[in-house]
């Protein structure tokens, strides 16, 4: 019988069954609509904060403090107020919605406790970042967007370096992978990527989500491979190998540096446009703030988030390229096309595997599962051809 990649691909996707496919389609398109709802929520937050003059009041209270401390505190206050006003939306989007699709088993109390830590941390980090941006507006004048893009690249690189050490352990427990065939296989792959054995870890990903995941994060000394306990429970040894091969591909191919570069470029474009659009947006919300006033942060952020949503297709195009390269790396080094396909099919419940071309280009950060499985089957066909006696 002839091996036909198209037929094999269809078989893999159809194995999910019509019900699961319909559910995946509904879930995926709901997540796309959330981009729009998110913008509406942030417009509402901006309007409330601006109209009540909340930041002006806070700023007036801090009158006697130095510029830097006042700017930092005004920014932190905005992030906290904004999180508080949009809390119901946050709970729905990150927890209620996931729960309604049976994709998380996390109790609400645990979610809220972790969410509070996340909000506190991001408010402080966001405050520091925008303190930097406002300092650059003061010092560099009209070229601030260029410098701020550089600051964004620095912030992204620092986050990538420090996340596995300082941030991730707050939300999950990381432990060595227990002795067994999975550990043996992972250590061998870690050697190839020059990641030390004590940085091959397992984490309790099931605490937040039923997603089947593994990842490589960090750079230099902080680099590590981590696999969710969900993958440990639900995957075969070959699937773990194929997925880890993909993740190591991201690491070895240096995709984090590409992402840092892209973030810098997009931040520059975003801040440049925000600079030009700020005055009109401020007028729209009824604010008299200038772009360099920390009291205008809600407006600056709203403009930036509209631009960010519009830039999604460009960003997605770049991340899809990285995903295809990582898949190819896994096929080349691990050479388990069926295991990769099997693992990919398990992710289809939160990424509908057969999107239209428009949906894939506009919204998909990964190529569709159908496309990725098809490439794995093409690879398999090529290997079978090579193995044939001549
Ligand atoms: Zn990937």
Indicate the topology:
Elements: H1 5-14, H2 18-51, H3 54-61, H4 67-85, H5 87-100, H6 108-140, H7 144-171, E1 174-176, H8 181-192, E2 200-203, E3 214-217, E4 224-228, H9 229-234, H10 237-252, H11 255-285, H12 297-333, H13 337-346, H14 357-363, H15 369-387
Parallel strand pairs: 2-4
Antiparallel strand pairs: 1-2, 3-4
Helix pairs in contact: 1-15, 2-4, 2-12, 4-6, 6-7, 7-11, 8-10, 10-12, 10-13, 11-12, 12-15, 13-15
Bound molecules: zinc ion.
Notes on the protein architecture:
This protein is mostly helical. The chain has one domain. It has helices at residues 5-14, 18-51, 54-61, 67-85, 87-100, 108-140, 144-171, 181-192, 229-234, 237-252, 255-285, 297-333, 337-346, 357-363, 369-387, and strands spanning 174-176, 200-203, 214-217, 224-228. It has a 4-stranded mixed beta sheet with strand order 1-2-4-3, sandwiched between helices. Helix 6 runs antiparallel to helix 7 (144-171). The two termini are 18 Å apart. The model has no long low-confidence stretch (mean pLDDT 93). Bound molecules: zinc ion. Zinc ion (ZN) binds at residues 246, 250, 323, 326.
Report the portion of residues in β strands: under 5%
DSSP summary: helix tally: 15
* General form: elongated
Order of helices and strands: HHHHHHHEHEEEHHHHHHH
Q: If strands are numbered along the chain, what order do they take across the biggest sheet? A: 1-2-4-3
Average pLDDT figure: 93
Determine Rg (CA atoms, Å).
23 Å
Helix content: over 70%
State the low-pLDDT regions, or none.
none
Number of strands: 4
How many separate domains?
Answer: 1
Largest sheet: 4 strands, mixed
Structural class: mainly alpha
């Amino acid at each position: 019988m002839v091996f036909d990649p198209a037929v094999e691909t269809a078989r893999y996707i159809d194995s999910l069954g019509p019900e699961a496919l319909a559910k995946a389609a509904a879930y995926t398109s709901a997540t796309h609509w959330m981009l729009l709802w998110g913008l509406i929520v942030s417009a509402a937050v901006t309007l409330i904060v601006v109209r009540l003059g909340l930041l002006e009041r806070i700023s007036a209270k801090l009158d006697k403090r130095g510029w830097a401390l006042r700017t930092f505190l005004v920014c932190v206050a905005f992030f906290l107020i904004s999180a508080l006003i949009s809390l119901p939306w946050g709970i729905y989007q990150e927890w209620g919605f996931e729960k309604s699709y049976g994709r998380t088993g996390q109790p609400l109390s645990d979610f809220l406790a972790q969410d509070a830590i996340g909000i506190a941390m991001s408010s402080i980090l966001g405050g520091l970042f925008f303190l930097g941006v406002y300092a650059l507006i003061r010092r560099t004048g009209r070229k601030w967007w260029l410098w701020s893009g550089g600051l964004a690249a620095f912030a992204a690189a620092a986050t990538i370096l420090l996340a596995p050490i300082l941030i991730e352990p707050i939300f999950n427990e990381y432990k060595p992978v227990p002795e067994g065939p999975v550990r043996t296989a992972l250590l061998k792959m870690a050697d190839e990527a020059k990641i030390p054995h004590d940085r091959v870890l397992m984490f309790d990903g099931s605490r937040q989500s039923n997603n089947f995941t593994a990842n490589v994060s960090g750079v230099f000394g902080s680099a590590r491979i981590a696999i969710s306990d969900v993958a440990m429970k639900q995957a075969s040894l070959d699937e773990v190998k194929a997925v880890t091969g993909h993740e190591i591909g991201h690491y070895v191919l240096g995709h984090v540096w590409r992402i840092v570069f892209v973030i810098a470029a997009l931040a520059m474009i975003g801040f440049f446009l925000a600079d030009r659009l700020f005055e009109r947006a401020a007028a729209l919300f009824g604010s008299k703030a200038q772009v360099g006033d920390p009291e205008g942060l809600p407006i600056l952020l709203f403009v930036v988030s509209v631009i960010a949503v519009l830039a999604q297709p460009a960003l997605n195009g770049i991340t899809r390229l990285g995903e295809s390269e990582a898949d190819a790396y896994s096929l080349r080094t691990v050479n388990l096309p069926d295991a990769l396909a099997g693992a990919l099919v398990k992710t289809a419940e939160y990424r509908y595997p057969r999107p239209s071309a428009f949906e894939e280009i506009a919204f998909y950060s990964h190529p569709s599962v159908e496309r990725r499985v098809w490439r794995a089957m093409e690879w398999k066909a090529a290997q079978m051809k090579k193995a044939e006696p001549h």
